[in-house]
Amino acid sequence: MGWEGAFPTESELSKHLGAAKILANYRDEGAMAFYCDINDDFIEVDQFHSDGRSHAMFSRIGHQPSRTTTYFAYVGFDIMPGGTDHEFYFFVLALNDATGEEHRYFSGVDTRRLISSPEDRSRVLRAICEMTFRLLHMVRPNRVFWYTYDDYPPGKALDKYDQIVSVFQACAYVVTRNDSYERKREWWADKYEDRS
């Protein structure tokens, strides 16, 4: 079983989403901060960047018509200073379509305010996991490091990281977690090598 087994099935989501979509259609467009644009059947990658050392991809996840803002999930690997290890990162990018101004949401606290629907947050996490899966298969870094953005994250906030760990494990990485890194949680993943 791959990492995707941790997500609700489409039929499970549809029971909850059906009522939410009907209500959303009757709400004032300006009252909603985030309209989710994720296709439940396929995560479309809008762009892939690579300069040979750093690699990233992003996918449109939503919009806010009243403010002409488009939202993207963004994942990437950057070479860490002084070495060949990569740092993994992900965030939600808000792009003002009129001015080109960008805002990056790294904190789970901020994204929860932006994306209030638990179903939509789950869909965004699914997009981040899918892009991470694709990026790992494209780049195949030997060692990857990442950490929480927020200090002392509660257990529930770590659930998304557990799903990301599952993605790395599904791609044949051995993942180690360290809970004592300067008020944050950190992970590193080493590409599994079969030495038999």
Mean pLDDT: 82
Along the chain, the helix and strand elements come as HEEEEEEHHEHEE
- For the secondary structure, the number of strands is 9
Task: Point out poorly predicted stretches.
Answer: 5-32
Integer tally of domains = 1
Major pleated sheet = 9 strands, mixed
Strand content: 25-35%
Radius of gyration: 17 Å
Query: What oligomeric state do these chains adopt?
Result: single chain
Helix content: 25-40%
Q: Specify the overall morphology.
A: globular
Number of helices: 4
- End-to-end CA span: 24 Å
Structural class: alpha+beta
Describe this structure in words.
The protein has 196 residues and is of the alpha+beta class. It has one domain. It has four helices and nine strands; from the N terminus they run αββββββααβαββ. α3 runs parallel beside α4. The radius of gyration is 17 Å and the shape is globular. About 14% of the residues have low confidence.
